[in-house]
Amino acid sequence: RLTSGACNASQEIDETVVTVRSKLTGDIEVFAAIETGKNTGEFVTPAIPLVRMDVPVSGDHVVATKDGGTIIATSDCARVALHDELLINPGNFLFNSLTNVPVAETTIAMIDVASGQEIARRTTDARGFFAFGNVDTGEYKYTVINAPAWEFPSVRTGFPGFGRRVNTAGFGESFQHPGGVMNQSDIPVDPHYGAPVSLEKRSDFKRVTTGEFVTYTLKLTNNMQQALVNAEVLDTPPFGSSLVPGSVSLDGEIWADPVVSDNGDLVFDLDDITLLSAHEVTYVMQFTAAAREGPNENTAVLTGNQAGTGVSRQSPHALATVRLDNAGGVFARNGTVIGTVFMDCDGNGIPGDHREPGIPGVRIVTQSGLSVVTDINGKYSLFGLRPVTHAFQVQDDTLPDATQVMVTRTNDLMHGGSRLVPLRKGELRTENFAVRACTSASLGEVADRREHYKKTQRPNSLVAADLPIIEQNSPVRSARNESVIATTTQLRSGSFSTEQEQRRSDPSPASDVDQAPILESLEDLIKSFDATPGFVDLVDGQTVQKHIQSVRVKAKADLSLELMVNGRVLGTDRIGERTKWQKTGVQALDFVAVKLAAGENRLTLVGRDSFGIERSRSEIRVVAPSKPAKMEIIAAPTASATPTDVVPVVVRVLDARNRPVSASGIVTLHAKLALWDVTDIRSGTPGVQVYLDNGEATFDLIPPQVAGNDILSVSGSFGRAEASITFTPDLDQRVMVGVIEGAIALGGEKSQLLDPERFSSFEDTITGLRGEVYLKGAISGKTLLTLRYRSDQDTEARLFRDIQGDEYYPVYGDNSERGYDAQSSGNLYVKVEKGRSYILYGDIAIESEATALKLDGIRRVAQGAKAHWENDKVSITLFGARTALEQRVQEISGRGVSGPYSLVLDGYVQGTERVEILVRDKEGGDVITSSPLRRGTDYLLDFFRNSLTFDDPVRQFDARGNPVSIRITYEVDVEGADRYWLYGGEINVAVGERTTIGAR
């Protein structure tokens, strides 16, 4: 309706034009407005339809519009412009403050400021539109809820060119509403990024010596939809390291060197980093003589401003640690001993030519429990030894039969095979052991030993314990929870002569696996057949291993033969071979690929004459297996804990009725203590992968050097099987080696021990008198004692000391195997074993003896005592230890955001954290589900800011209303903390063959 005297141009009923435009869709329509009467000045258009249309069409007399739109009507009469607007379902819009893109499926709540109560909530549509309709008079404010992907209110205040209507209400400020339709303000929101920018730092070397170069790589990532402007990296290099000029590159291109601040920090100017991009910065640092030995930490942080908002963004601190260690090289403090155990045929104590060969498989033990086994050439090497006097002992039971070690120097103390080795700092020392009695028998045994090594020893297969643990893909040979690295290649005296006698007395020993018979052809066998109808290779009641068989039959030559399987006649196309012997009038047929049913099968051979009349019939019954259903392990229930006595283990495939099945496939072998002496065909896969052929195979198992119960398991596509084997103490061991050394002043009024300051700087003896002993042997009949004591134990020794072969140059020219017994970080290690029971003091592992038990996932190691008693049905374990490390657990409720979540990380031990997302029952609080997360992929831990940030938001509740929380478990080392007792026990009782109950 238009009211205007200017449009009343005559005394008659006039007509004027009204233009209607949709502000939201841009649709323009023109309508005629007719005066309601003569000289009334009021004009009315016909009814104008308003329709929701995706594609507006001008001139169709239909105005295309949508909710929240505005219709603008204009008219021009006698140069008088008329204008009016109409709101269509008034409301507002939620939009991205940076891109102006509508934000859909997000909840907007309206809060009554006076009461703080929520009045109403609306969910935005695809255009970001929401409308509250008519609202009473009052003071209100908007808020955005349950929108983890967005931040409200926006930090941006201006939106030029966006076409939005925004006032303070759009930023969460309160406003007065006079009543009626609510149409206050559009709402801008900023994108939320849990980790807007990230920075990773790594080095190409983890360990260097003075003067060496390290290449650092910075991987910086912009995870935002906007660029990071004025980006720079602040890098804090370790003290004593210097940047190599010209070594900086960005994404492989040369980049300007960083600015060096007054305190030595490096500032890399990276300009702008585009949205959703990742880049790499590399540079080289040299560790100078001023650098400190030990761990050198290099930290870096990425900073910049978010484009569009100007918000400052900063990554968590990235850390790379490089250890400066001058040990292990030519200037190492520790020493090395190399040598040969050889046949000294000329008696001069010096290794000669090939007529004085080295002896493989000889074991040498030291006073610290360290042992070494000579390689195929009789050579050995021991490195990383402390610069003190050591005692070496050659084990007589590993020498060739009827031989002994000669006394060649005063350090042998008049007893061949026992030698004192005074080692100095950084010394490389040669210690050869000459063996006499070069008889034809002893030289023959040496030759047999060499042949044995050639057949069984794989290249570098015996030094696995020397390799760095972080480089191991296959299971590490060190049994860390048992304080032992066992040697497995030593050979016992006379073992080859015994084997030869056994071979002579039994030239064809039976195998553990039945050998498949070699079938002769029917053409060769028919001469020995008579004309009696029957089966050649099968007998009545026989059990076969395959359900596909070749069935060979015989009968009179003038009969026509047919074979029936369970009443079904096989066609002539199944006959693979047919032969006759006219002399005896017999024929033989071979029916191939005969398929048998699972269970009992009836095989019937029928002979007919030329008229089809049955003249003979022979029938047998055979049992065939069904499909593979499970596996079985056959092994001895007990075995000696002697690594040289290999235990055969048979693995078979069975059907559902426990019948052997001839099936082939890859299976995985597992053992907790023992080692499988097989080739792992898939070294990158957990466990030992082997191929099982024809449904049965025998695998060799190398026993551990410690007694205890072990669980052997095999798994694959055929199922899973387990078997228990108990390793009993090796009571045949006899080792006792030790040294007591001191220095006394001769002359004067009274001899006395030297003061510590008078010792040579090339020695490591810190007191006037020191001693060390290693003992292993049987006491009181069936009890085995293992003892090691050192009076001046290195206080910095680590728990479960391994042989660190990566610290030294592996150029000693041998392939000897090294082992360690009686590991302990303290002065004393003692273990008493009897059968399956033992008492231990030293470094212990606190973990469950039963695989089904878990004590909140506790896995800790400490120096303490442990006792274990076991029989066929009951096992009891008790442990106690004193430690200063503490385990800390924090649980934080999810807030619906990615973070940051504040933590208390004082004393945090790097890499020990375990982060889980828990869902607890809303009624009882019990844990329903626990989902472990991976660092760097699912979350970032900033231990400089004591915070945790996740890649995805952590909900407050799950779909059923159960609360969601974050649980973080980690170890802390509190400076000056008191040592405390850590103790407990475990009991397991077998109540049946398949049922065991236990408590811990």
Written overview of the protein:
The protein is mainly beta and 1000 residues long. It has 7 domains: 2-87; 92-191, Immunoglobulin-like (Sandwich); 197-324, Sandwich (Immunoglobulin-like), CATH 2.60.40.740; 335-482, Immunoglobulins (Immunoglobulin-like, Sandwich); 524-542 and 547-622, Immunoglobulin-like, CATH 2.60.40.10; 630-728, Immunoglobulin-like (Sandwich), CATH 2.60.40.10; 886-977, no CATH class. The protein is 3% helix and 44% strand. The protein has 3 helices and 76 strands. The strands form 17 sheets. A 9-stranded antiparallel sheet has the order 58-61-62-64-65-66-67-75-76, with no helix packed on it. A hairpin with a 5-residue loop joins strand 2 (15-22) and strand 3. The longest helix has 17 residues, at 440-456. The protein is extended.
